[in-house]
């Protein structure tokens, strides 16, 4: 990470993202509205500015500066910063940054997120194993969730059920799942509501969780009691686009070619205007993190990357179909982490 900092022309940085702090220190928490700041520089200084409300374990080489709510905590942070260029991560709040700049006119701030983002983008062997484990749990959650489709659960109730399945299999946090029935599937990130399933509905299930601090993510689209010829046609186009994206994942190739491959299939079928999002996103400690799997990314596919491939077609007011798996890139090639089937499934 310090090498990345130097490559970006910086010698010091402030990291406030709890996920990045966890990545670097193996421990973190959500500070809510309070300031949490990890200061690092190329001389080996590691200093954490931390509220007394949240005990932080002692670590070799970590100097913890504690403050109370009534303290001038920005001044504490200002006292450890050196003059010159200072990296600031993209999550550091303006309510802390602007007073810091007022106190230290000898400092110029620069976006410093790339240093840790580039490190997190390439998972090591231990991280890859954690992501395999998380995806196995996701297979269980998808299988058990789909088994309850006929139970007359609302979208919200189905999301709650899936959260309980995660928690019973090592999940640590209940999250808002994307469960869509019927016309709601035409909204790529529909917010699940009280809609109940009815015969003939398309059902889109996009679910994730945190297992041992690492994320899983998967989307499947199934059909309740019936499938029309049009729905089957659209499903097969999306499935073909998915496989084209998987086939495009090759070491040392531009990552944008994955997006180009999925989009070419859908566009050639006449539905390009209805594929309204990028092909995928990186994933790890956070659900969405680098790399970006889009037509404008400049990343080259490298060992250690883990990202989603999730093409979709969404016909407004009617239905939408998306298929998503996670892909891990290794020295030996690629590995699709999700094992749950992608064949057309009509739930009776």
Distance between the termini: 52 Å
CATH class of the largest domain: Alpha Beta
Radius of gyration: 22 Å
Structural class: alpha/beta
Q: What's the CATH H-level homologous superfamily of the largest domain?
A: Creatinase/methionine aminopeptidase superfamily
Q: What's the helix count?
A: 9
Main sheet attributes: strand count, strand direction, barrel closure:
6 strands, mixed
From the coordinates shown, what is the CATH architecture of the largest domain? Answer: Alpha-Beta Complex
Strand order of the largest sheet: 4-3-2-1-5-6
Describe the structure.
The chain is α/β, with parallel strands linked by helices and 348 residues long. It folds into 2 domains: 2-120, Creatinase/prolidase N-terminal domain (Creatine Amidinohydrolase, Chain A, domain 1, 3-Layer(aba) Sandwich), CATH 3.40.350; 122-347, Creatinase/methionine aminopeptidase superfamily (Creatine Amidinohydrolase), CATH 3.90.230.10. The chain contains 9 helices and 17 strands. The chain has helices spanning 2-7, 18-25, 73-80, 94-103, 113-121, 125-146, 155-168, 229-247, 256-268; strands at residues 12-15, 37-41, 46-51, 63-67, 84-88, 107-111, 178-181, 202-211, 214-224, 280-282, 289-293, 306-309, 312-315, 319-322, 325-330, 333-336, 346-347. It has a 6-stranded mixed sheet. The chain has a 4-stranded mixed sheet with strand order 7-8-9-17. A 3-stranded antiparallel sheet has the order 12-15-16. A hairpin with a 2-residue loop joins strand 15 and strand 16 (333-336). The radius of gyration is 22 Å and the shape is globular. The relative contact order is 0.12. The model has no long low-confidence stretch (mean pLDDT 97).
């Amino acid at each position: 990470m310090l090498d990345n900092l130097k490559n970006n022309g910086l010698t010091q940085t402030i990291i406030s993202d709890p996920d990045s702090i966890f990545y670097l220190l193996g421990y973190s928490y959500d500070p809510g509205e309070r300031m949490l700041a990890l200061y690092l520089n190329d001389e080996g200084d590691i200093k954490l500015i931390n509220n007394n409300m949240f005990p932080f374990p002692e670590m070799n080489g970590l100097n913890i500066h504690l403050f109370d709510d009534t303290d001038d905590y920005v001044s504490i942070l200002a006292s450890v910063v050196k003059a010159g260029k200072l990296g600031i991560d993209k999550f550091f709040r303006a309510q802390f940054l602007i007073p810091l700049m007022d106190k230290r006119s000898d400092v110029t701030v620069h976006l410093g997120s790339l240093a840790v983002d580039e490190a997190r983008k390439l998972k090591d062997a231990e991280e890859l194993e954690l992501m395999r484990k998380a995806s196995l749990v996701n297979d269980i959650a998808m299988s058990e969730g789909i088994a309850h489709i006929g139970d007359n659960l609302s979208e919200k109730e189905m999301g709650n059920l899936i959260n309980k399945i995660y928690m019973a299999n090592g999940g640590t946090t209940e999250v808002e799942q994307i469960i869509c029935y019927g016309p709601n599937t035409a909204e790529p990130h529909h917010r699940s509501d009280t809609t109940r399933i009815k015969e003939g509905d398309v059902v889109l299930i996009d679910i994730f969780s945190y297992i041992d601090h690492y994320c899983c993510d998967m989307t499947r689209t199934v059909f309740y009691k019936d499938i029309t010829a049009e729905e089957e046609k659209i499903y097969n186009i999306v499935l073909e686009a998915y496989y084209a994206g998987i086939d495009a994942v090759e070491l040392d190739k531009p990552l944008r070619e994955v997006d180009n491959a999925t989009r070419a299939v859908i566009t050639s079928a006449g539905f390009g205007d209805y594929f309204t999002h990028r092909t995928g996103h990186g994933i790890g400690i956070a659900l969405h993190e680098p790399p970006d799997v889009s037509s404008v990314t400049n990343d080259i596919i490298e060992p250690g990357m883990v990202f989603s491939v999730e093409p979709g077609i969404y016909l407004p007011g009617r239905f939408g179909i998306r298929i998503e798996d996670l892909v891990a890139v290794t020295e030996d090639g690629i590995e699709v982490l999700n094992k749950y089937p992608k064949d057309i499934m009509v739930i009776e």
